[in-house]
Design goal:
Elements (H helix, E strand, L loop, with lengths): L2 H4 L2 H7 L9 E5 L5 E6 L7 E8 L7 E6 L1 H4 L9 H9 L5 E2 L4 E2 L5 E6 L2 E6 L5 E4 L6 E5 L5 E6 L2 E6 L6 E4 L6 E3 L4 H6 L6 E3 L5 E8 L5 E4 L10 E4 L9 E8 L4 E3 L9 E6 L7 E5 L5 E7 L6 E8 L12 E2 L5 E7 L2 E6 L2 E2 L5 E9 L4 E7 L12 E6 L2 E4 L6 E7 L2 E7 L7 E6 L2 E5 L13 E6 L4 E6 L11 E5 L18 H8 L3 E5 L9 H5 L5 H16 L5 E11 L1 H12 L6 E5 L10 H8 L6 H7 L2 E2 L2 E2 L9 E6 L8 H12 L5 E5 L9 H18 L4
Parallel strand pairs: 3-5, 39-40, 39-41, 41-42, 42-45, 45-46
Antiparallel strand pairs: 1-2, 2-3, 3-4, 6-7, 7-8, 8-9, 10-11, 11-12, 12-13, 14-16, 15-16, 16-19, 17-18, 19-20, 21-22, 22-23, 23-24, 25-26, 26-27, 27-28, 29-30, 30-31, 31-32, 33-34, 34-35, 35-36, 37-38, 38-40, 43-44
């Protein structure tokens, strides 16, 4: 029997895509609160998503039905994705198939989606699906609020067609190869969470359309060395300190007439957010390149001129948040701001929350209140480590909607609220539809049940009270003595790992069950605690993040059976950078590292992310030099002794390109440091391939046991 046959979790983890297949997602609640729309595949190993509707007002009680089934619509034929669609899915980390995204009209009576670049509509009130014959491949279709028209992008041009398929025409056509209309540029999709490039007016009579010109952006070439007969793919990649795409915005009528929206693009080149509702003029959030200044702009829909509604500045940087800026129904500006050491919800000129909450996102804006997600703030009476809850906020106060422990988010329509909760229960995330005066309605999940149970303990480590999770092998007792340690962090901005959610710790538990004490620590720079906690990494990202991992490890050893003489670390992307940094700079603490898709030379990563934390490399080359793992002269601040390192990287990665790992390997070789390199042929930053995902866990385990001399 082979090692692979003995260990079933890696195979299950890969086949279920981390237990996401079969789980309902991408929810919409109709404005009248009578329908819930969502995506879900038919089983825990089925990659093909179908479009579903829950009719809450059905006779006899709520009923689910399939609104659109890709298998029948494509006649069993495999999906064919354009290069543009594959790139969109990489930016959104979408690895499933079938219907992976949809949009609805204002009443949520009709949905629109694509399959193999073909355009479809589905009624959400009747069992009717229609294919619309239009030029393709179709990208990002959107219904007008009144449901009468569909706008979409194909080959860089924005088209509009009647919902019945008649009257199709081009609204904006690229003037040259480097121009595209109606799409999000790379850094908007990858770093700003803005994946759209056009927005309908609330009256359905025109659109705001982004024009993206990448002529000045440097071209990189992503090749497939396993297939030398194929030419490399050209990508426009704005590395730190190099030119970005030139983004402009136009008010565009249904006849093709357009007016440019004017703002100080030289000072504020980033178009970060666009909001257009019936509660006010189109609203833009634009950023300076250093992200220390933002302006909220109202757009005159006749002239295209803008006026400043609000502006912010910060000596380090200003974050972007989901759901804002937006207008409240009474016309006041809704935003999230850092004030008085806390992250608060502000409506008009008044902060409606205080330092007891750390607001994460605005989920819905209603007439009577605003729905937000938030974690415990710096002055919370009873801080709950690793939790995010849904709260209802208005001038009268704050009321928590979610009650159980864990990570919660919500979608609302009318008086109906859909609550998704991922807590410590091994059964996994749940989805409940809440209606006033009626019992909750559960949305069924078909996700597989993991073959193991994560037994994690949440705690806080050291003087800085670093949030951490510790996992020990199932069945371990004190008589077994101390355990070799695997530090398993991400530890960078925009992601938490030490959370009160069972499924978040499954892979860590599998490693623990192989004989490790696994430590997950969220040090400074990670979200959810306070603005100061997040922004303390400015200009010193590597040193601060690494020191917090060291401090957490040292403090936790006082209370847990950690053998500090045998410590390994593993990580992917930012976590891969940290893993390599740990063994290169602190080999006295870390004895081996699995380094996955690492960012090594920080000048090779994109503008919007890297310059936020380290500035322009032309202005601060010394900052990049001390934070990077390699420099033009070789390894940066590499200490002795040399520690074993396994470097893993997908050759098709267009986010953290494989040059990062190749340059690290070259520098290690030139310094005489032994290491292993595992190239993943055809794999991107996501590594969605089932066999690769499964075997990577097994190979990492083998490397860790060899490196720490374990049985």
């Amino acid at each position: 029997m082979t090692l692979k046959d003995q260990l079933s979790f890696p195979r299950q983890h890969a086949r279920t895509q981390r237990f996401t297949l079969g789980a309902p997602r991408a929810f919409t609640v109709s404005p009248d609160g009578t329908r819930v729309v969502f995506l879900r595949s038919s089983a825990g190993t089925d990659r093909v998503n179908r479009l579903w509707v829950v009719d809450l007002a059905a006779e006899g009680g709520p009923k689910e039905r399939i609104a659109a089934d890709p298998l029948s619509l494509l006649g069993g034929a495999p999906e064919q994705l354009s290069a543009q669609e594959r790139a969109r899915r990489e930016r959104t980390r979408e690895s499933s198939a079938g219907i992976v995204a949809y949009a609805v009209d204002g009443a949520a009576e009709t949905a629109v989606f694509t399959l193999s670049g073909r355009l479809f509509t589905a009624s959400l009130t009747e069992p009717v699906v229609t294919e619309i014959d239009v030029p393709g491949p179709v990208i990002d279709p959107r219904l007008s609020p009144d449901g009468s028209r569909i706008a979409y992008v194909t080959r860089g041009a924005l088209h509009v067609v009647q919902a019945d398929g008649s009257g199709g025409r081009e609204l904006a056509v690229p003037e040259k190869d480097e121009v595209a209309y109606g799409v999000a540029e790379f850094v908007a999709a990858e770093e700003m969470s803005r994946t759209r490039g056009f927005w309908w007016s609330p009256d359905s009579d025109r659109l705001l359309v982004a024009r993206v010109d990448t002529a000045k952006v440097r071209r990189w070439w992503i090749s497939d060395p396993a297939h030398p007969d194929k030419p490399p793919a050209s990508v426009s990649y704005p590395a730190a300190g190099t030119p970005n795409a030139d983004v402009t915005l136009f008010l565009t009528g249904l006849g093709g007439e357009r007016t440019e929206v004017a703002w100080d693009r030289a000072r504020f080149p980033y178009l970060a957010r666009v909001h257009w509702s019936g509660s006010g003029a189109p609203l833009l959030l634009v950023q300076s390149r250093d992200q220390r200044h933002t302006q909220y702009l109202g757009v005159n829909t006749v002239t295209g001129q803008t006026r400043i509604v609000h502006q912010d500045e910060d000596p380090r940087w200003l974050e972007l948040y989901p759901g804002v800026p937006a207008w409240a129904p009474d016309g006041r500006l809704v935003r999230i701001a850092d004030e008085g050491g806390a992250r608060v919800l502000v409506v008009g000129d008044r902060a409606l929350t205080g330092p007891s909450l750390h607001v994460r996102a605005v989920l819905d804006i209603g007439v009577r209140d605003i729905l937000v997600s938030a974690s415990a703030g710096p002055e919370a009476d009873d801080p709950e480590t690793g939790e995010v809850h849904v709260h209802r906020v208005n001038e009268l106060g704050v009321q928590r909607v979610s009650q159980g422990p864990g990570l919660h988010t919500a979608v609302r329509g009318g008086s109906t609220t859909l609550l998704r909760s991922a807590g410590p229960d091994p059964s996994g995330p749940t989805v409940s539809v809440l209606r006033e005066g009626r019992p909750p309605v559960a949305v069924t999940s078909y996700a597989d049940e993991p073959v193991l149970t994560a037994r994690f303990r949440l705690t806080e480590a050291g003087e800085r009270r670093i949030p951490a999770a510790v996992l020990l092998p199932n069945g371990w007792s004190e008589a077994d003595g101390k355990l070799p340690v695997l530090v398993d962090p991400y530890a960078f901005p925009h992601a938490q790992r030490a959370v009160n959610s069972h499924h978040a710790h499954l892979t860590s538990q599998w490693f623990a069950d192989q004989g490790f004490a696994v430590v997950v620590a969220d040090g400074r720079g990670t979200p959810g605690r306070s603005p100061e906690w997040e922004k303390s990494i400015k200009d010193e990202m590597a040193a601060v993040i690494l020191q917090d991992q060291v401090d957490a490890l040292t403090a936790l050893a006082e209370d847990f059976p950690l053998d500090l003489g045998r410590v390994a670390i593993r990580g992917w992307s930012g976590g891969g950078f940290l893993a390599a940094c740990a063994v290169l700079r602190r080999p006295d603490v870390f004895h081996a590292a699995v380094v996955g898709a690492p960012v090594t030379d920080l000048r090779l990563y994109d503008t919007h992310y890297q310059e936020r934390y380290l500035g322009d490399p032309a202005d601060s080359p010394e900052v990049y030099a001390r934070n990077s793992l390699i420099t033009d002269d070789g390894l940066s601040l590499a200490a002795e002794p040399a520690r074993p390192m396994m470097i893993i990287h997908g050759l098709a990665d267009d986010n953290v390109v494989v040059a990062h790992s190749l340059r690290l390997s070259t520098a290690l070789l030139e310094a005489g440091r032994p290491h292993e390199v595992l190239p993943l042929t055809g794999a991107t930053h996501m590594t969605p391939q089932e066999q690769i995902a499964e075997n990577m866990l097994l190979l990492q385990l083998d490397f860790l046991k060899r490196s720490l001399a374990l049985d």
